[in-house]
Protein 1
Amino acid sequence: MSHFLLTKNLPSLTGNTTCSALELVTKLCDTDFARRAKATDFRSRAWDALRVSGAGDGDKVLDAILVLFAALVAQSPHEMIELTQKEDFTSVLWGMLTTLNKVDPFELVGSGANEVELKKAGIGKAEKLNVSLTP
């Protein structure tokens, strides 16, 4: 799959969007994949695919994935410059970070929070299942 993402136009994240988005970000943690991604405009296309899929628009899990993606890209100043030139980059991240209610969906699910706590944080059963299936 990594070769497909690097060599083809990034498709919109279909099917289970959250799992696809998380897989995309997880791939960036792979050293070999990240090295190959640097040789292409993968990060720019990945940002666009995440945004088209709804990341940055209020979905708690997709928003957290988008913030994680930005943090991974920020490890390389050159790659970060490319993303900061995107029209929506700063406004989307700023909007998400200023509206945080100090509840990290990944931490909440990982800590074994009960259904009531998850529901209060806006995390449904489907989101909980998606996050708990991550490696």
Note: The first helix runs from residue 2 to 7.
Protein 2
Amino acid sequence: MTPIRLTTVDLQRNLPSHYLARGRQYADQGRVTGLRHIPEQNRYIARVTGTASNPYRVDVALHRGSRGTDIFGACSCPMGVNCKHVAAVLYSALDEAGLEEAPAPQIDRSPPEPAQPALPIELEGWVKSLERAGRPETPRDTYAPAVLQRLLYVVGMPKYAHPPKLHVHLVLARRLKAGGYSSSSAYHNIRQALTRPPAFILDADQRILRLLLVEADAYADADFVLEGEAGSRVLAALLATGRCHWLDLDTPVLRAAPARPGHAVWSFLPTGEQQLRFVTDPPSSVAVPLLPPWYVDPSRWECGPIDSALPPALSEALAGAPMVAPQHAAFIRAQLEQQLGHPDAPLPQMPEVVEVADAAPVPCLRLLTMEALSDGP
């Protein structure tokens, strides 16, 4: 992943000015500890000492936006997203790297009117925490009767993705009284959903969106790619909403189901190529390369983990295997025997070679489009 450049202009565009002012103070006071930059993921991880007894955990992911760098910071404080602690971490990162180019936001240090002694940061934070504690929090776990819009999650494995990956597409649609949806469109307002959630965004949706921003790779504004153990957690959360669909909204809701035992085998395609697939009991048609791999059974609209005798990391790698042409089978088989070293690891079959001497070769030209290759979101 190409590193993403960060300046204070990006901070001013993504975070409120009062959070920036307080975050600048926190950074100057040395409240940020354990700052770690993960350049290949464009992430910053740190802890920030705030008003609580324990430091807050901050995880910031940077993404390329149409107007510069977009900032998605998750924090364990009550605010949760793009708070003053996120600002403190990014100011500290800019200070360490010497990358700050734009002026920091101006802080009005004039005495308030009427004159009043300024409260220490700890006391001011404590007073605000009392205000929040006095307000009863209403969980957002159900829809109001008048709310017909729904945030939906369409998952699939597009054929153009090499190696195959599970994509999640965010869709906003209107629920029909007779069932199904209408007026569907891609949902892009993730930042609004986290900071000023509309009525159709539930608490579960906010948790999923935070996971996608931090744990998944953004393929497009409303499209994310799931991988590894984090991808398994996200997929489980998607299924729990009851609003997850396979390939498109015309399919029934995809349901979470128990793990199925399975094993990996290579099978021949009509073209002579070999494809690795997981055979499960009961049978399923799709293996998703996660840690561990998951199955999708469109005949029952069920989805769950695959219980294999192989190590989970090896199973994930095998589930993402591309097709093997006949001329490559011997080489791939030898490589797998040498590298895997596991008695249950599947090996490609050796195709039978038939010599044809009396047939003239015929050239073939195949033309494909991205639409023809597409399958799912």
Note: The radius of gyration is 26 Å.
Protein 3
Amino acid sequence: MTGPGGAAPLPLRIAIVGAGPAGLAAAWGLTKPLPNGALPNVAVTVYERSWRAGGKCGSTRLPPSHRIVQNGTHYMFGVYFNTLEMLEEAHQEIQDGRFGSVQDLVPRNLIALKHFYGGAWTNWKFELPPRGSAFPNPGGTPFESPEQYLTEVFEWLKKHLTDGGVLIVSSALASLLDLLIEQATALALDPTNDPLMKLLAQTLKVARYAARLLLGSKTDLKSVRARILIDFVLTLVLGILVDGVLKGQIAQVDVWDFANWMKHHGAEQETCTSPLVTAWYDSVAAFENGDPTKPRLSAAAVLQTVVPALVAYRGSFAYQMKSEVGEAFVAPVYEALRRVVPSPVLASVVIVLTAGHLIVGAVVGFISLFVSRGAAPAELPAAPGRRP
């Protein structure tokens, strides 16, 4: 759109409703430099009905103790590539120690589950291997294709069982795991090789059967857990292959409850009721009407969220924030957005916060902040970075 008298093009005016993580991320993405390095000709206004940004991830400190008030504890998972990249860019732009830094994200790779065994609750721990570093952002994902993850999963399973003293390197089961690694590696090089994918599926069934023969009658804790883990991993991968998930056929999986989907693909009842399955129901309260006797969790949801988080993370499986999510994540991004330098033709952002109601309006070419009664703060200095 050209301005009056052939003047410079007027910016595209965009309104975003809600200053939660999604709204802030949308404003961030809309004002990022284009591939050629130019800034987009947009004027973004973010409207928020609350007096603070952050939505469900907002944090408040109330006097006199200034204790934190927020919606629970939050982690960032290593698979949140875009989120971590945005946070890193925000810190690079504001260069303000008051908002901390990405080094305030503490790497966490330990997963601890509660396992009921022998009439008592026991701790079942898994230590996931670090995978490089998330900062500075290396770009992209650890692997180029999902098939490449299969090799790493099988290698991790073999190492975990060997280190735990369950798997003997010279055993038939170890040889079958080696065969799975070999076939998965070949599939990663040729993902469209359907005969190879079918062969891998058959090998998974054979390896699962061999594990049941080896461990099926044992009742000691180490063997029970190894039996459940093998059954879980091999059945999960088998279901992914058989249902065409690697080919994008996820819709047909969405009709299944996760535990029932695992059972459908041959998992033992012991596995389907183990913490390797139930933990994901508990973590998101996936129960119909809150009734724990009526679990309901889409298999597709698990395959699209939990599985990538476990196998596709960069750096560490998760990152724990030293402060709270509103301070460690929302505040730096919000601060970078509100420091956009005034410009009549280049990217600008307006964030409108109110106390319980929406102020309708649009301001183009400068940055302002309306809080509570509509007072605007003093103009902030420009921050170095990608913005004009």
Note: The radius of gyration is 25 Å.
